[in-house]
Amino acid sequence: MSDQGARPIGLFDSGIGGMTVLREVRRLLPAEDLIYLADQARCPYGSRSPDELRAIAAACAAWLIARGAKLVVIACNTASAAALADLRCRFPETPFVGMVPPVKPAASRTRSGVVGVLATPATLAGDLLRDVISRWAEGVRVIEQACPGLVEQIEKGALDTPETRALLRSYVTPLLEAGADTIVLGCTHYPLLLPQLRAIAGDDTLILDAAPAVAQRVVQIVKERSLMRDVNPLSGIITCATTGDPEHFANLIHRLDLPCDRVEQAVITIDA
């Protein structure tokens, strides 16, 4: 087994949401060790400034790299929009994969010509989404919907409560009334609300999540850079760490039936 291949793939997010990406990476690369960092002490990221987000992302990436990560997935749309380019400059030896809202496939698959994007305020304010829309959504009406409060509900584990359903309905209904037949999930937390979203949007609405495409990109990079594990065990180890309460995090992982072998406490220092 090579030293490179034996190292884990790292992922980070503000909380539990990025584990929807980890789940897809695990499905495609079952033999790889994965290490996931949930920065729950600073969750949510959606209302933070770009400078704050870059500093936080740098600290999270440094923690994963110190733990041996051979590749880092920014499993957060908000952090990707603010910090992906900065992280690639700071850590040139480490490949990074970021989240991009799947506007391109949405624009190609919409029948009505109207696409809705559910995201955090910071993601909607970032240049990354602007660039994707301008490049790939010509001739398509893209309606952006900020969703304050959803991440907090998910982090509490309050997925199927009257408050969460009402909040989600208030964000989705205007998109449907405007004619959207395709909804883009622009936050890695939101796939955890897929049953509730489907109940509101109906079976005829196409709902797109970027996680499968991101996982495929991870596979591509691992193969291209010869980072694949040489000797495959039956299953790699998934280590999950949080800057918040490990007991709450472990309970949330269990309730949501997400893959994890062990939960640890993480301490992250943010440079001013």
Topology:
Layout: H1 3-6, E1 9-13, H2 19-28, E2 34-38, H3 50-66, E3 71-74, H4 77-90, E4 96-98, H5 103-109, E5 114-119, H6 121-125, H7 127-136, E6 141-146, H8 150-155, H9 162-177, E7 182-185, H10 194-201, E8 206-209, H11 211-224, E9 238-242, H12 246-255, E10 262-265
Parallel strand pairs: 1-2, 1-3, 2-9, 3-4, 5-6, 5-7, 7-8, 9-10
Helix pairs in contact: 2-11, 3-4, 9-10
Helix share, percent: 40-55%
CATH level 3 topology of the largest domain:
Rossmann fold
Morphology call? globular
Rg calc? 18 Å
Counting structural domains, the number is 2
- Uncertain runs are none
Q: What's the helix count?
A: 12
Major sheet characteristics: 6 strands, parallel
Strand coverage percent: 15-25%
Strand order of the largest sheet: 4-3-1-2-9-10
**Helix/strand class:** alpha/beta
Number of strands: 10
Give the C-level CATH assignment of the largest domain. Alpha Beta
